[in-house]
Amino acid sequence: MTVSTPRPPVDLTARVGGLVLPNPIMTASGTSGHGAELGAYFDLSRLGAVVVKSLSAEPWPGNAAPRLLPIPGGMLNSVGLDNPGLDRWLEGELPALARAGARVVVSLWARTAAGYAQAGERLAAGLRGSSLGGCVVAVEANISCPNIDDRQRMFSHSEEATTAAVSSLCGALAPTGLPLWAKLSPNVTDLVVIGAAAMRAGAEGLTLVNTLMGLAIDPVTGKARLGGGGGGVSGAALHAVAVRAVYDCRRAFPRAAIVGVGGVTSGYGAAELLAAGADAVQVGTATFAQPSAPARVLAELEAWCASHGVTNMPGLVGRAHG
Questions:
Q1: Does 1 score more than 70 pLDDT?
Q2: Among residues 86, 113, 137, which one has the least CA distance to residue 257?
Q3: Is the pLDDT of residue 23 over 80?
Q4: How far is CA 318 from the centre of its chain?
């Protein structure tokens, strides 16, 4: 008679810089709504954190339709950062997240460095005057957006613009004590240089990576297939890019907080990013096909760890670096 050996329990507790989460799986900004929308499909409190769609100080309408286009290996999107503005979000969306028991990461964006300061000040003031502020655990600076002071180039494509945006936001957020992660674009020749600029400016960590720039054209009309013209490539096609970005930045910044994102569709994909050096992982585009994908990835990651003798996250995070 064969007696099976019970697998040791897996402690999924994740440490992202100074932040401790029950597990390393989060949603990704822009793929799960502004609030508790995914709560209809799974218990949001099960995730390490919920990262909300990027918010600006004032409401923003976004781009013209169509905004999303399925492509081989993923999706092309040109949503254009539409959002209700921080005041309306704090009043209308944060309460539902708090009731769901979610740990919330607020993603902020702006079109100028001063705009990041304004957004940070608006968030700090809203949390200071709210009993719900305790559910907000971190802020993610989406600096992959147009800088109108620099010919519409993305902030994260320039050391100087990255420094200006991150330092402005850090100053505004100082009263909150919340950690700040800078979400970077892979559309640069040296991501480590941009990451270093973000952390010198005050970011505790990096979220790697945002979408790749792409374009789809209708050959009949010769026109772009999305209302905003070009868009961002996300999904499985982006995964290897994210793994490389995380690996390179972990090698360069051994003590930084790093969150990996890009093409995670399974527990195996999450484990790969963790092994590359991510402290936590976000699940994004997969939720368009399966809204419960973040919860499924969490369950698969736990099963993968158990079957491979990984009993805690320190035993997996950064494994690729020896």
A1: no
A2: 137
A3: yes
A4: 19
Tokens of 31: 């793929």
**Catalytic residue selected from 135, 145, 170, 305:** 145
Query: Could you state, in order of their start, the residue ranges of all structural domains in the chain?
Result: 14-63+84-217+232-321
Choice among 89-98, 139-148, 268-277 with the minimum mean pLDDT:
139-148
Do you find a cis peptide bond into 209, omega within 30 degrees of 0? yes
- Whether the predicted pLDDT of 151 surpasses 70: no
CATH fold for the domain made of 14-63+84-217+232-321: TIM Barrel (3.20.20)
Instruction: Read off the pLDDT of each residue in 122-136 and give the average, rounded to a whole number.
Output: 92
Of residues 136 and 153, more confidence is placed in 136
| Long-range contacts of 63-72, Cβ-Cβ distance < 8 Å, separation of 24 or more | 63/226, 63/227, 63/228, 64/227, 64/228, 65/227, 66/225, 66/226, 66/227, 67/226, 67/227, 67/228, 68/226, 68/288, 69/216, 69/225, 69/226, 69/231, 71/214, 71/216, 71/233, 71/235, 71/237, 72/237
In this prediction the pTM is 0.96
Does the annotation count 145 as an active-site position? yes
